[in-house]
Design a protein that fits this description.
Low-confidence stretches: 1-48
Structural class: alpha+beta
Helix content: 40-55%
Shape: globular
Mean pLDDT: 87
Largest sheet: 4 strands, mixed
Length: 471
């Protein structure tokens, strides 16, 4: 691992107990970054892809903006163990040698730390590479300057990881294509895309636009920085480490080559990151399109297509970004894909587990946060009846939690009485031997812990929030 002497010295200071950081960290960094070594300039957009692109990246205001972004995103530390809360002091202490090493071409990024996130498929994982917080700032600074340059080149049919674009835009574009008669799709699956990007081909594509060789060299170093897996270093000969601020932009730059080829051939398509659907009017033309585009993807872009998952099908039978589609009275409409529903129920079950040790206050906050995020993402779909069923099931699980928390007969007896149940029934149910799950559906708990009572406790439910969002 490339850990500098300054980093080691800084880590020691942290352990011994360094001075508390100024609460106004954003302003503090702006002052800390100011240095006579940084060239102040007024480069115009026309010159950004020229030989002074690195100066624009290292500009004080751009680096300060990058620091703020990394700070707000928080996240885990990289291989050096430095956290986001330690970043400001490190940059204050090491700004000059850090900037000089980047400008002189002597900076060597640290390898990323491998983290594996379970995927929906059983036993499969998504491999993330977590850069150090310092490398995150540098990558963010690069991305901020390169994004407006490449945005001009990107396709209107690309929606992932782009400013003012979202998954909802991609879904609406799919509906538009359906309405115009394009009801068959090539559902393309690029196998382990982020892990298999050909780095030489990516550098070649970047070099067409970026004429500052120092920037190309710095990006290449990030691609070649390697990965630490279970404390062992591994080289990265292929791929773009998924997890850093620069990787989404680099992936879009590479796949923009495919976008342009599809546009050249006159195809309708929608792409969100590495999820791609090509729209056609018949199954036969869809099969022909798949056969014709495969050689370009595999022999020109050197990407791998998962032949098992890539398919030609009617759009109503495919999953795209968690949604599925159907036609109703000539209108293209949306449902939530069954796999997305299963995933949601699994998460709710986890948040309403009886044995996770959370207080009711923490559980309420976690459920509320998840429900708001989930509804805001899937709000385009038709799901009223689904949400009503899910809410009934979730309320039953919540009642079961309270029943278990009350534990003793005496506690149950008192709680039921305080919630409006008469003395006889309270005593009868307090002494029941029925299971937690069975008693959670009883009329007594439905009355004592009714829907309105649970709302008063602070619980938010899917259907209630959904009505707020669509009203």
């Amino acid at each position: 691992m490339n850990v500098t002497k300054e980093e080691i010295k800084y880590r020691k200071l942290q352990k011994e107990g360094c001075q508390e950081k100024n609460s106004a960290e954003h302003e503090g960094y702006s002052g800390a970054y100011a240095s006579s070594r940084i060239t102040e300039n007024n480069i115009t957009n026309e010159n950004l892809s020229g030989n002074r692109l690195l100066e624009e990246i290292l500009d004080k205001s751009n680096m300060n903006k990058a620091y703020k972004k990394v700070k707000s995103n928080k996240g885990a530390g990289g291989v050096d163990g430095m956290g986001v809360d330690e970043l400001l002091q490190y940059l204050k202490d090491n700004k000059e040698p850090l900037i000089k090493s980047i400008r002189d071409g002597k900076y060597h990024p640290n390898p990323v730390r491998r983290v594996e996130i379970p995927k929906e498929e059983n036993g499969k994982v998504r491999k993330l590479g977590i850069p150090t917080v310092v490398d995150r700032v540098i990558q963010q600074a690069i991305a901020q300057v390169l994004t407006p340059i490449f945005e001009k080149q990107f396709s209107d049919n690309s929606y992932g990881f782009r400013p003012k674009r979202s998954a909802h835009g991609a879904i609406r574009k799919c509906q538009e294509n359906m309405k115009e008669g394009y009801k068959y799709v090539v559902d393309m699956d690029l196998e382990k895309y982020f892990d298999t990007v050909n780095q030489s081909r990516l550098i070649e594509v970047l070099s067409r636009t970026i004429k500052d060789g120092r920037v190309i060299s710095l990006i290449h170093k990030y691609l070649k920085a390697g990965v630490v897996v279970k404390h062992k270093f591994e080289e990265t000969k292929d791929g773009v480490p998924q997890g850093g601020p620069l990787s989404p932009l680099l992936s879009n730059i590479m796949l923009n080559e495919l976008d342009k080829e599809l546009e050249r051939r006159g195809h309708r398509f929608v792409r969100y990151a590495d999820d791609l659907m090509i729209f056609l009017k018949s199954r036969r033309s869809a099969k022909r399109t798949l056969k014709n585009i495969l050689p370009y993807i595999e022999k020109k872009l050197f990407l791998k297509v998962n032949q098992e998952k890539t398919k030609v099908d009617y759009i109503g039978r495919v999953k795209f970004l968690g949604f599925t589609f159907y036609m109703y009275k000539g209108e293209a409409r949306l449902r939530i894909h069954p796999k997305s529903i299963t995933k949601m129920k699994r998460k709710v079950k986890e948040l309403t587990a009886r044995s996770n040790g959370w207080s009711n206050e923490i559980r309420i906050k976690k459920l509320r946060r998840y429900i708001i995020g989930w509804i805001n993402y899937f709000k385009l779909a038709d799901m009223k009846s689904l949400l009503k069923r899910v809410d009934q099931w979730m309320r039953r699980r919540i009642r079961m939690i309270y029943w278990k928390h009350w534990k003793r007969v005496r506690t149950k007896f008192k709680k039921l009485q305080s919630l409006g149940i008469n003395k006889q029934k309270s005593w009868e149910y307090a002494n029941t031997r029925k299971s937690y799950w069975r008693i959670s559906k009883s009329p007594i708990l439905n009355k004592s812990l009714g829907n309105e009572i649970l709302k008063e406790f602070g619980y938010l439910f899917f259907y209630d929030y959904y009505r707020q969002v669509i009203s």
